[in-house]
């Protein structure tokens, strides 16, 4: 320790340093005297030493935690603001990605509270899932014990980050009080015909012994208008490029299992159209969802098959882009991978010669008439079913409805197999603007326009429940079954007489029983809990059994944001009045890896609840802020691909090499991972640099949507800025103390006008980042510039100018959401002065102050700007350049590289990933190999 404290007594000053010749601090005051008591006495430490910082943060962290415990949300006339960060999986420890997202959300929550709003900033835990179950098996623990222990520790870590969440609304998805209502939502879906069970070919993880849904193993090509805004060219979910599960590493297998599905396809068009109602979402995210859903110009019809085996699903669901031409359906084609062709019960019903032909289906391009028929649900006509490897279907599409009137390919197929079909199209002879095509040979629809027939046929299908919902050919329903223990039990009972029976709502929750052992995989261990598994049928009271599949954890996270609005309600899922007050979420913050699945699932469930009249708003998330990863620097041998720890790397030469053999290494910024030895422990960083420094650093330099390299070489810049702000308060106190007895008020009209303009500009710019762009790195740059402006003011201005005092107070207030601990101490340093502004609430802390309002700004158009240059998040200097260059990225980079700074710092360097340009700062950040 190196204390440097000034004690002021009536008779003298005593400067105490930790040296042998001077008394220790503990010998001068009792140990139980708090830092705040010193401030109440009007004392101040002139320098922000590391020891001072630790004691300041220790005290104010306790104060903020105590204040947070009293944080309550009450419905009032105030404007509400709901800021939500994606809740974490309780893995046991926070990582830097957590620190980034929760620092962003906490900062924005503080801002809106200071603007007088009722702010909901909740926290909870996405606590079910495979990782907890596997970890429990490996450690011979129970998943709930493991999970709740992790939650307790991570909750403490979040509080130690000085975050202020509404902890009274905390939710945990593995708690029966929560998943009772997840089961309730499932039952509403079941009653609406949107939850169903069927046999399907599924993707099976042979190690984890459970299903991975189609969405979790698909590789989908995403189209972009602007490639610079891409999240990636391809979206890969839960599987690597070799088709292996990302969790276990095992090759994904295909299995035929009876599974539970949710009919997302009934909402495809609604979900796609809803994207137009989200103007504040990133266009790249909306494009990804739009492409995932696909072209919703057609619909699905359920054709009843003529089969004798009752074990086979009687309906065949087939998509068509031409529902208005359904009377012209001539055949159905199944792809070689179709589920029916994998079922032994189905194959045995076919003619032996057909069975023999099917052996060649995947090796040859052939068409096979299966000799069976399906019934057209509209016309009642028999439609022959073929299997074909010669017709190439769209990705994820397993069947095709052949309508010769709609395509030449279908006409050719029908002719090749001598199939009869009806001509159902006739162009109108009317050449006016109202020219329409009408349908023929289509029963009661004959003579109607295609458009009117289309709507009428789909309406008929919906009313008679054989399809008719607009969707794309490759969109599929959501498979939610998981063959593992640690998940929400599906509230269904299987009865030999009554078949599938939903658990009565009054019997919810169906509680997941505690188990002594979880060693079995593939077959649910729930079957072994006889008193739980064997139950009477709710309808006929006969012996029955519970469903043992549990729900995909994505189901738990589709509605957690709604539970936050009324988390302690034990009588209903939430109060509609409370929910409608707080919803929609004003700002949702989370990782870009959830750009499709979680967000799409959550929108689906929310739109269903809206359809049921349970929520007022149709879309759950008004605005979306997608933050990138925090990247660590990795060192990998080129020859073997082995990752090395930093201690195994020799940095003495011009390039890093392996200490063991001198081999040149591949140095990259990659997603933090234990296996790559590039992770950073948040606790260690906080212990070394302090809470506020970590918060400021993780907000600075890089816009939230970009991946951020964790480069500790840039942290000293943040520390220097903190010290400069601290010195402003020190100088203000010293100058005002020296001029305390002087009553002369000097006038500085020009200086005050300039300072006032700078202050208003800063308030406007920082407020804009908190509310519109969310580029908090830009806000920090503005505050740094404003700090330098205040440092350049004369002592005479500091001594007597109320404008200066207001500017310094506003700086402290604007920094507080990002660095609440140091700002709280700085505010106390200002509050204990005799001279201060009357409009400030000096009896309250800095986080309870009103956000400053910007006055009018006379903006002057400039032809040149000063550009901040950074390399790997570290400032290397500024250059002046024509403002026009900010509009042309190529010219801007060329100008920088040819400048003195560019030549001295960027010559022979390899720029990796991207060059990040923030024209509004203006700032350019080069990410390079160091």
Automatic annotation (TrEMBL):
<dbReference type="GO" id="GO:0004823">
    <property type="term" value="F:leucine-tRNA ligase activity"/>
</dbReference>
<dbReference type="InterPro" id="IPR002302">
    <property type="entry name" value="Leu-tRNA-ligase"/>
</dbReference>
<keyword id="KW-0030">Aminoacyl-tRNA synthetase</keyword>
<keyword id="KW-0067">ATP-binding</keyword>
<dbReference type="InterPro" id="IPR001412">
    <property type="entry name" value="aa-tRNA-synth_I_CS"/>
</dbReference>
<keyword id="KW-0963">Cytoplasm</keyword>
<feature type="domain" description="Methionyl/Valyl/Leucyl/Isoleucyl-tRNA synthetase anticodon-binding">
    <location>
        <begin position="753"/>
        <end position="884"/>
    </location>
</feature>
<feature type="domain" description="Aminoacyl-tRNA synthetase class Ia">
    <location>
        <begin position="59"/>
        <end position="297"/>
    </location>
</feature>
<dbReference type="GO" id="GO:0005524">
    <property type="term" value="F:ATP binding"/>
</dbReference>
<dbReference type="Pfam" id="PF08264">
    <property type="entry name" value="Anticodon_1"/>
</dbReference>
<dbReference type="GO" id="GO:0032543">
    <property type="term" value="P:mitochondrial translation"/>
</dbReference>
<dbReference type="GO" id="GO:0005739">
    <property type="term" value="C:mitochondrion"/>
</dbReference>
<dbReference type="InterPro" id="IPR002300">
    <property type="entry name" value="aa-tRNA-synth_Ia"/>
</dbReference>
<dbReference type="InterPro" id="IPR009008">
    <property type="entry name" value="Val/Leu/Ile-tRNA-synth_edit"/>
</dbReference>
<dbReference type="Pfam" id="PF00133">
    <property type="entry name" value="tRNA-synt_1"/>
</dbReference>
<dbReference type="InterPro" id="IPR009080">
    <property type="entry name" value="tRNAsynth_Ia_anticodon-bd"/>
</dbReference>
<keyword id="KW-0547">Nucleotide-binding</keyword>
<comment type="similarity">
    <text>Belongs to the class-I aminoacyl-tRNA synthetase family.</text>
</comment>
<keyword id="KW-0436">Ligase</keyword>
<feature type="domain" description="Aminoacyl-tRNA synthetase class Ia">
    <location>
        <begin position="475"/>
        <end position="639"/>
    </location>
</feature>
<dbReference type="GO" id="GO:0006429">
    <property type="term" value="P:leucyl-tRNA aminoacylation"/>
</dbReference>
<dbReference type="GO" id="GO:0002161">
    <property type="term" value="F:aminoacyl-tRNA deacylase activity"/>
</dbReference>
<protein>
    <recommendedName>
        <fullName>leucine--tRNA ligase</fullName>
        <ecNumber>6.1.1.4</ecNumber>
    </recommendedName>
</protein>
<keyword id="KW-0648">Protein biosynthesis</keyword>
<dbReference type="InterPro" id="IPR014729">
    <property type="entry name" value="Rossmann-like_a/b/a_fold"/>
</dbReference>
<dbReference type="InterPro" id="IPR013155">
    <property type="entry name" value="M/V/L/I-tRNA-synth_anticd-bd"/>
</dbReference>
């Amino acid at each position: 320790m190196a204390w440097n404290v000034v004690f002021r007594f009536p008779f003298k000053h005593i400067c105490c340093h930790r040296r042998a010749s001077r008394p220790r601090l503990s010998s001068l005051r009792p140990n139980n005297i708090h830092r705040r008591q010193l401030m109440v006495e009007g004392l101040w430490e002139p320098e922000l030493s590391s020891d001072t910082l630790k004691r300041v943060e220790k005290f104010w962290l306790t104060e903020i935690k105590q204040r947070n415990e009293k944080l309550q949300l009450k419905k009032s006339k105030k404007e509400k603001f709901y800021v939500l960060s994606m809740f974490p999986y309780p893995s046991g420890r926070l990582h830097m990605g957590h620190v980034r997202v929760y620092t962003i959300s906490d900062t924005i929550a503080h801002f809106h509270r200071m603007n007088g709003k009722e702010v909901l900033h909740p926290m909870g835990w996405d606590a079910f899932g495979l990782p907890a179950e596997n970890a429990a098996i490996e450690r011979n623990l129970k998943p709930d014990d493991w999970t709740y222990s992790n939650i307790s520790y991570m909750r403490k870590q979040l509080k130690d980050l000085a975050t202020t969440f509404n902890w009274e609304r905390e939710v945990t998805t593995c708690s029966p009080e929560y998943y009772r209502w997840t089961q309730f939502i499932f039952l509403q879906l079941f009653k609406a015909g949107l939850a169903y069970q069927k046999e399907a070919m599924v993707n099976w993880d042979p190690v984890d012994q459970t299903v991975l849904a189609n969405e979790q193993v698909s590789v989908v090509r995403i189209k972009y208008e602007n490639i610079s805004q891409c999240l990636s060219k391809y979206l890969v979910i839960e599987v690597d490029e070799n088709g292996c599960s990302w969790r276990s590493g095992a090759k994904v297998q295909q299995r035929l299992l009876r599974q539970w599905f949710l009919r997302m396809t009934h909402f495809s068009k609604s979900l796609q159209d809803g994207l137009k109602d989200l103007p504040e979402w990133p266009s790249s995210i909306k494009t990804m969802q739009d492409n995932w859903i696909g072209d919703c110009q057609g619909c699905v019809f359920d054709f009843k098959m003529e089969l004798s085996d009752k074990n086979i699903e009687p309906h065949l669901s087939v998509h068509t882009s031409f529902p208005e031409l359904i009377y012209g359906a001539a055949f159905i084609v199944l792809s070689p991978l179709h589920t029916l062709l994998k079922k032994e019960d189905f194959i045995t019903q076919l003619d032996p010669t057909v069975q023999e032909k099917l052996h060649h289906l995947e090796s040859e391009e052939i068409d096979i008439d299966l000799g069976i028929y399906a019934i057209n649900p509209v016309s009642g006509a028999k439609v022959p079913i073929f299997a074909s490897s010669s017709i190439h279907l769209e990705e994820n599409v397993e069947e095709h409805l052949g309508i010769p009137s709609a395509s030449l390919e279908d006409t050719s197929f029908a002719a090749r197999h001598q199939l009869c079909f009806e001509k159902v199209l006739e162009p109108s002879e009317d050449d006016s603007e109202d020219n329409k095509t009408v349908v023929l040979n289509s029963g009661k629809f004959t003579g109607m326009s295609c458009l009117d027939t289309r709507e009428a046929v789909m309406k008929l299908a919906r009313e008679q429940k054989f399809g008719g919902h607009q969707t794309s050919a490759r969109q599929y329903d959501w498979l939610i079954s998981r063959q593992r223990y640690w998940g929400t039990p599906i509230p269904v009972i299987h009865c030999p007489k009554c078949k599938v029976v939903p658990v009565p709502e009054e019997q919810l929750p169906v509680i997941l029983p505690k188990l002594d052992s979880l060693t079995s995989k593939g077959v649910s261990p729930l079957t072994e809990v006889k008193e739980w598994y064997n139950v009477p049928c709710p309808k006929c009271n006969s012996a029955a059994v519970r469903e043992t599949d549990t729900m995909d954890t994505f189901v738990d996270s589709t509605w957690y944001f709604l539970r936050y609005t009324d988390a302690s309600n034990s009588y209903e899922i939430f109060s509609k009045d409370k929910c409608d007050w707080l919803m929609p979420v004003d700002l949702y913050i989370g990782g870009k890896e959830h750009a499709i699945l979680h967000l799409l699932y959550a929108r689906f469930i929310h739109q269903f609840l809206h359809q049921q009249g349970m929520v007022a708003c149709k879309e759950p998330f008004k605005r979306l802020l997608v933050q990138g990863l925090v990247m660590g620097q990795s060192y990998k041998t080129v020859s073997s691909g082995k990752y090395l720890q930093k201690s195994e790397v020799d940095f003495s030469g011009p390039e890093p090499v392996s200490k063991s053999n001198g081999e040149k290494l591949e140095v990259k910024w990659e997603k933090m991972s234990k296996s790559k030895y590039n992770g950073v422990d948040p606790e260690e960083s906080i212990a070394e640099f302090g809470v506020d420094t970590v918060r400021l650093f993780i907000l600075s330099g890089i816009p939230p949507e970009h991946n951020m390299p964790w480069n500790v070489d840039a942290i000293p810049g943040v520390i220097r800025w903190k010290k400069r702000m601290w010195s402003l308060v020190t100088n203000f106190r010293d100058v005002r103390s020296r001029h305390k007895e002087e009553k002369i008020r000097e006038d500085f009209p020009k200086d005050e006008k300039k300072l006032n303009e700078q202050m208003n500009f800063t308030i406007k710019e920082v407020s804009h980042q908190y509310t519109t762009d969310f580029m908090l790195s830009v806000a920090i740059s503005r505050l740094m510039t404003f700090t330098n402006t205040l440092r350049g003011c004369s002592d005479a201005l500091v001594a007597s100018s109320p404008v200066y005092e207001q500017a310094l107070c506003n700086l402290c207030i604007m920094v507080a959401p990002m660095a609440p601990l140091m700002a709280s101490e700085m505010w106390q340093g200002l509050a204990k002065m005799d001279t201060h502004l009357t409009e400030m609430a000096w009896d309250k802390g800095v986080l309870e102050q009103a956000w400053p309002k910007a006055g009018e700004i006379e903006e002057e158009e400039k032809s040149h700007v000063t550009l901040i240059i950074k390399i790997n998040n570290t400032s290397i200097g500024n250059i002046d350049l024509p403002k026009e260059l900010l509009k042309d990225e190529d010219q801007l980079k060329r100008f920088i590289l040819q400048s003195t700074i560019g030549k001295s710092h960027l010559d022979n360097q390899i720029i990796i990933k991207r060059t990040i340009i923030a024209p509004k700062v203006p700032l350019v950040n080069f990410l390079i190999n160091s």
